[in-house]
Inverse folding.
């Protein structure tokens, strides 16, 4: 991972990885903490604020759509998430569309 990258943390939960990614990509990078649970996202937002991390954006999403900007993400991270997806193939296609072409 490099400074200024954009990272999507799918199924961000309590933000453990999102906050670490935010530190790694620096102030010019961006982390999209994606989750279906608004309480988790609020917790992440508050934790990022306490740590002075202004580069974390929480994304409330439906279970079948990651809702990420097209062709904008450098790295997609998922941990313990895929078994929750009803249609993995379609979900992964949507994730692919969010990745930068290179």
């Amino acid at each position: 991972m490099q400074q200024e990258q954009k990272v999507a943390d799918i199924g961000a939960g309590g933000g453990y990885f999102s906050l670490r990614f935010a530190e790694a990509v620096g102030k010019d990078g961006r982390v999209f903490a994606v989750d279906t649970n608004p309480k988790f996202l609020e917790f992440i937002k508050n934790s990022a604020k306490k740590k002075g991390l202004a580069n974390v954006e929480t994304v409330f999403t439906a279970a079948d759509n990651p809702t990420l900007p097209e062709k904008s993400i450098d790295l997609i991270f998922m941990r313990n998430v895929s078994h929750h997806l009803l249609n993995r193939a379609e979900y992964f296609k949507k994730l692919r569309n969010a990745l930068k072409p290179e």
User: Anything to note?
Assistant: The chain has one domain: 6-98. The radius of gyration is 13 Å. The longest strand covers residues 30-35. Residues 20 and 90 are 28 Å apart (CA to CA).
